[in-house]
Every structure is written in C-alpha cells, then in structure tokens.
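Per your request, structure below.
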C-alpha cells in the first residue's frame, strides 16, 4: 500500500463485492472542488463501462432552459451554494433509475450532504466504495483557475497543460469550450467553504460504513488513476 492510498479503517471494503462478481460497482467520488472527481470519474466510466453521473453536470445542463427552476438552480451554483436536498435527491435518484445505471454507477458530486447519503442508502443502491480524493486548498484553487470545460460532453481541459488541439474547441465533440461561471475567483472560496461545512462530514459517514478509501489527489492525474484502480482492484492498465 502506498502513502497516497490509505485505507483508513481495518476491514474497509470487506463488504466490497458482496453484490456478486458479475454485478457492476456502485462508486461514489467524494472530494473538494478541483480535486479531480470529474477527471477520474470520466476515466473510470470508460474502464468499467458504467455511467459517470455528475450532479453538477446535470444541473449545468438545466441552464439552457428558461424555467423558474433552471434560474433558481443557476443562482445557487453561481453563488457557490448547494442546490436544496429535496430537488437534488429527486433528480439524481431519477437518473439512477435509468437502464444504463442498473448494474452500477460512478456518482460524482452526489451525495454531498448527509440527507443525500441517507436517501441513496434508502433507495437500495448501496455504495460499494466511496473514493475520497483530497488535495490542499492552494492546489485546488490553482487547478480551478486553469480549467476549461465542454458544456456539451463535459470533457475537461486545462490551460497550458491539457489544452485542446484546436483553440477553445472540444476535441471530443467540437463544441466551443467555456469557463464555468462558478470557477470565477470570487466564487471558488465560498464553494470550498460550503464543501467544508456540508460535505466534509460525509468522509466520516462513509468511514463508519467501512467503504471509504482516501486517495492523495495532489499527485499527477496518472498516479491518482493508478491508485483509484488499485482501490477498486482493477487490473493494472
Ligand atoms: P460540481 O460540478 O460537482 O463541482 P465541484 O464539486 O465543485 O467539483 P469540480 O467539478 O469543480 O472539481 P472536480 O473534483 O470534478 O475536478 P476536475 O476533475 O474538474 O458542482 C458544482 C455545483 O453544482 C455545486 O457547487 C452546487 O451548486 C451544485 N451541486 C452539484 N451537486 C450537488 C449536490 N449533490 N447537492 C447540491 N448541490 C449540488 O479537475 C479540476 C482541474 O484540475 C481540471 O482542469 C483537471 O484537468 C485538473 N486536474 C484534475 N486532477 C488533476 C491532477 N491529479 N493533477 C493535476 N491536475 C489535475
Ligand atoms: Mg467536476
């Protein structure tokens, strides 16, 4: 076991795989803004052939709609606040009921509060592994300041290092890239604070359940990916 991947409790993951080897894996990605949940979630989805379900992406897709609900959601996100639990739970559980998520899923950014975690447990979709990807605040702020995303397929880019082949154009789907409104410097700090207040306690929640695996997200994308694979007992790529 490396220093980067710490199993924080003896017997952790002892229930992993209880749903049978032929079943998919129910995975939750937990961690602060900019930790790399989306980056690792997209890679895992390809490897496991499971949907990457990111609540933030679902909410961002609403932006195009001219409804009072869409405007409300936009307002919460742009202030760095969370969308209320009742709405979030409804939207995500609805998505989990789709056929492609029946065998397993990679949830990114949900649950984010204890009521959301309880709602997921009560829905009968028990979590096999909660991957907690963490990194120091200065690293998070710096990464977010360089990020560009595709509003259509949600691909993630980075100014200077992982830039697209054609300037400000998504390599995957050709859509124009953009900066997320909540990546504005004045919103990043409130987002981090909301995370600490409301989501950080879920680390203890999943630790108590014995499903938490902590991964040092300050390492390179490739090293983090290797540690994620190891945590999930995936064959080395
Ligand atoms: P959401 O979209 O989930 O955002 P977030 O949690 O703030 O996380 P980010 O997407 O900013 O970061 P990430 O961890 O995915 O990092 P990424 O891989 O992109 O939520 C947005 C908002 O929606 C919330 O604030 C809230 O308003 C609402 N919302 C969503 N879910 C909700 C819920 N359940 N309840 C209530 N409200 C909800 O990486 C970041 C950058 O770093 C990229 O440029 C990437 O290339 C780079 N990078 C990644 N990993 C590495 C690495 N290891 N080394 C170097 N660079 C790296
Ligand atoms: Mg993300």
């Amino acid at each position: 076991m490396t220093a980067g991947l710490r199993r924080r409790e003896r017997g952790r993951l002892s229930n992993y795989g209880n749903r049978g080897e032929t079943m998919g894996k129910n995975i939750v990605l937990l961690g602060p803004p900019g930790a790399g949940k989306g980056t690792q979630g997209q890679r895992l989805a390809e490897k496991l052939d499971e949907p990457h379900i990111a609540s933030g992406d679902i909410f961002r897709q609403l932006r195009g709609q001219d409804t009072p609900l869409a405007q409300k959601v936009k307002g919460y996100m742009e202030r760095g606040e969370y969308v209320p639990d009742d709405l979030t739970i409804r939207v995500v559980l609805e998505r989990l009921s789709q056929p492609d998520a029946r065998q397993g899923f990679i949830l990114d950014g949900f649950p984010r509060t204890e009521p959301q975690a309880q709602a997921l447990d009560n829905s009968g979709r028990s979590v096999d592994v909660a991957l907690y990807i963490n990194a120091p605040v200065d690293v998070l702020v710096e990464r977010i300041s360089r990020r560009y995303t595709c509003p259509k397929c949600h691909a993630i880019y980075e100014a200077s290092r992982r830039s697209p082949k054609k300037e400000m154009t998504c390599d995957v789907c050709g859509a124009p890239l953009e900066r997320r409104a909540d990546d504005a410097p004045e919103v990043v700090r409130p987002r981090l604070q909301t995370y600490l207040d409301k989501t950080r306690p879920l680390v203890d929640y999943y630790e108590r359940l014995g499903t938490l695996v902590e991964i040092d997200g300050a390492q390179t994308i490739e090293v983090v990916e290797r540690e994620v694979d190891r945590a999930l007992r995936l064959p080395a790529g």
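Residues 31, 33-39, 54-56, 59, 76-77, 80-83, 88, 109-110, 112, 116, 143, 146-147, 156, 158, 162, 182, 191, 217, 219-221, 224 surround BIS(adenosine)-5'-pentaphosphate (ligand 1) (CB under 6 Å).

Regards,
D.
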